[in-house]
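anyone seen this seq b4? input:
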Amino acid sequence: MRARRWLLALLALLAFSAQALAAGTVSSADPRASEAGMAMLRKGGSATDAALAMMLALTVVEPQSSGIGGGGFLVHHDGRRNLVSTIDGRETAPRSASPALFLDAEGQPLPFGRAVPGGKSVGVPGNVALMKKAHRRWGKLPWAELFTPAIRLARDGFAVSPPLAKALASAAPLWADFPQARAIYWIDGHPAAEGETIRNPALAAFLETLARSGPDAFYKGDNAAAISAAVASAPHNPTRLTPADLAAYRAKDRPAVCGHYRAYKVCGMGPPSSGATTVLQILGMLERFDMKALGANNPESWHLIGEAMMLAYADRAAYLGDSDTVHVPVAGLIDPAYLRRRSMGIQPDMALGAYEPGVPPGARPRTVVKAAEVPGTSHFIAIDDSGNIASLTSTVEGPFGSQLIANGYFLNNELTDFDFAPEKNGSPVANRVEPGKRPRSSMAPTIVYDAHGKPVFVVGAAGGATIIMQVAKALIAHLDWGMNARDSIALGQIFFDRDGLTLEPGTALEAIRPGLEARGHPIAPLTARLKANAAERLPDGRWQGAADPRSVGMALTE
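predicted toks r here
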């Protein structure tokens, strides 16, 4: 019955008038968000308007993954000028933070599970500042218009989706100490179940204020005080995040990181994201192999992908961080000559077994610490009828972020993306906690261009550190193996842990396990939650969106 109510609610939501003057393509991880984006395009809005409306709607219907209490990265293609731009809305550590933030009384790193809930993990949210910058540059609709779908969903209520119901059930033991979360998302003393209706009047009221008063209403006044109070009075790990920290926050323009893979140009987000750099490293190390001839069902293909992945992630752990505070040799890491040298260690018939960082041009000596990341992110795409593209990944980090709530929305736990140990062997770690610093991210919103400079593929994903590999796999599947957008993101996933490769169970990759084991790879099941969204340009020039079948996501084209 609950599943039927969920389906009926979606069908009712997706019923719309055909009186559209303009439209395009959208894809997100929830049908209500996709419909919010399409509603903006029907009103003549830009791709940016649609993407921002989706982010606001996801704040309401997918609170476990993203929202205005977190941050994001936007990669934008200007259809008229044929330019790619990026905006960094990553959260920052407050001025009270120090390299010892996540150390216990004995100077040892806290267990990850102890560090996440409560105040210490909260960074200054960046999504609303990202919205401000993007809307001023590329928006067409009035600012307040972007909020209409989200306000309606929060005020009138929405049916709990299967992923939200599962996340609520998982969070139940932790929420004994978080009554504000229970007050919104529990019904009759229990976590809301699939198909039940949630209303969030506090969030609706704040979204109305934000729509009416503009983005400064997030970073100043009552809301800034509410965030500061939530962090200071947290039942776990209380700390100081002040209104001054919020008032000082700025989203930043960053140069896109672009590189070539075969005939294509691949562009994405630079530091503090490790996304584009690591994706390009994986692709660059595979370029000397004929992946098309090897094919998607060949264990050698996945062995090569696995080797390139583990070498690239070793470099990521050593060199990637916030380029405002630490030297990140991006040009050296994606230098074709460096990647060819790095690739020469990859043998088609044998695993390397040990994967150490290289020394790219311009690099400084660096120590390596492996940080934990948890999947709590959402990616969404919008393309308008003028050819503008917005590829935006947004996150509150882990499920429901820090578990803390201000004005009806969850605050992120993004600071746990920092490496907890500030030093190793007496040397500072690149991704250590520092005041005002942005933690390293795996988010990888991506736009691909053909040999003529025309955008042909857009992709991004959710799932912590697996995001990079989900995007790289989708690019290989689409560009080398000719799979369409949906099949490329639906294809089984490969990743790794401390022991070796991990494969997604229940997929075609299980058939190649013996071939990988014969090459010396220990294999374990991949347990991370995966979720990607994509869009492809068809031969006739039209765009077609795709949502990951692992999710309840939806792509719409009009």
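Confidence is low (pLDDT under 50) at residues 15-20. The CA atoms of residues 275 and 501 lie 20 Å apart. kinda curious what u guys think
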